[in-house]
Design brief:
Blueprint (H helix, E strand, L loop, with lengths): L5 H9 L3 E3 L3 H6 L2 E5 L11 H5 L1 H9 L4 E6 L4 H13 L2 E7 L8 H8 L3 E5 L1 H4 L5 H11 L3 E2 L7 H18 L5 E6 L3 H9 L5 E6 L7 H12 L8 E4 L13 H14 L8 H13 L8 E5 L14
Parallel strand pairs: 2-10, 3-4, 3-6, 4-5, 7-8, 7-10, 8-9
Antiparallel strand pairs: 1-2
Length: 313
């Protein structure tokens, strides 16, 4: 059964544990770093996907849709979570996957198919047009009506779900923090998070993409949709910690950081998002980015199922 209300989701979010990182780098920098363990909130709907799907699933149910459709790659955390949600809450799910169907499915897509998701593989060229009416009309004619959720849950409903996470964080810490950090792909999560916290606090998004591209504009658009037009943006996009780009093979120094971090903290990281987040936080602390006495919160956005596509420490 779907969570009944935003208040119920907020109550769940307020109970997410926080873990203090003990590290010489942070001690030397005079800062405190807390990890909000949203990876623990749900085994299948992990991290930010738990929040980004909430309003989308409610809208689909209220509008009478029984089929959900979205897009993603072979190791998509979003498709994995969507398939799990469909299986749990009684939706049929369609996953439109970039590229040809391989001889052997990734563990991510194997899980999705086992949960009942129908996988539709399209060429990389066609995938570039995933949001255009012509492709969506073709999919609708082939598979029937569906509720569309953009790739990564990147819509207003997804951002509103993350706004609840920000509100929960604010209530947990009662404003006793300096900034909150999270990994950033589509920018939807960052926009919602920034809208949910106090406007005097700063939300920092560590981009996992090589080059900002239109990411900043996407965040601005989503933020403005949630907030009043007169509210100043309280977010920043941090670049330079992509380590080669999305899903690329990690350089040796990043693999070594990954190993050291997990050994010292006991916190598992996903290789595409949170690994780069904590590497970035660590690097900025070494550079003296935050004033001494700062209290930094890092959002663990889950995605640990993606570890299966990498050689982990």
């Amino acid at each position: 059964m779907l969570i009944d209300s935003a208040d119920e989701l907020l109550d769940i979010a307020r109970k997410v544990p926080m873990q203090r990182l003990e590290h010489k780098v942070f001690t030397d920098a005079g800062i405190e770093v807390l990890v909000r363990r949203d990876d623990l909130i749900d085994q299948e709907l992990s991290g930010n996907k738990f929040y980004k799907l909430f309003f989308n699933l409610r809208a689909a149910r209220e509008q009478g849709f029984t089929r959900l459709l979205s897009f993603g790659g072979a190791y998509s955390n979003h498709l994995h979570a969507l398939a799990a949600a469909g299986n749990r809450y009684g939706f049929n799910t369609l996953g439109v996957v970039r590229g040809e169907r391989p001889a052997q499915l990734s563990p991510t897509l194997s899980d999705a198919e086992a949960w009942g998701m129908q996988l539709v593989f399209i060429s990389r060229t066609d995938y570039q047009h995933k949001g255009e009416p012509e492709l969506l009309a073709e999919l609708q004619s082939r598979y029937g009506g569906f509720y569309l959720i953009p790739e990564g849950g990147a819509n207003l409903a997804g951002a509103r779900g993350m706004q609840l996470l920000g509100q929960a964080l604010e209530q947990q810490l009662k404003g006793d923090y300096t900034a909150v950090c999270m990994a950033c792909g589509t920018g939807t999560s960052l926009a919602g998070l920034a809208a949910g916290i106090n406007y005097t606090k700063l939300a920092l998004g560590f981009s996992v993409l090589k080059g900002e591209g239109g990411l900043g504009d996407a965040i601005s658009t989503a933020y403005r949709q949630i907030c009043d037009s007169g509210v100043d943006a309280n977010w920043r996009l941090i670049t330079g910690f992509h380590a080669g780009g999305y899903g690329k093979k990690h350089p040796d120094y990043l693999t070594q950081f990954w190993q050291d971090f997990e050994h010292s903290s006991g916190i598992p990281l996903d290789p595409v998002y949170t690994l780069k987040l904590f590497w970035g936080i660590n690097s900025l602390a070494r550079q003296g980015y935050w004033p001494r006495g700062s209290r930094i919160v890092a959002i663990h956005s889950g995605g640990l199922q993606g570890r299966r596509g990498f050689v982990c420490p």
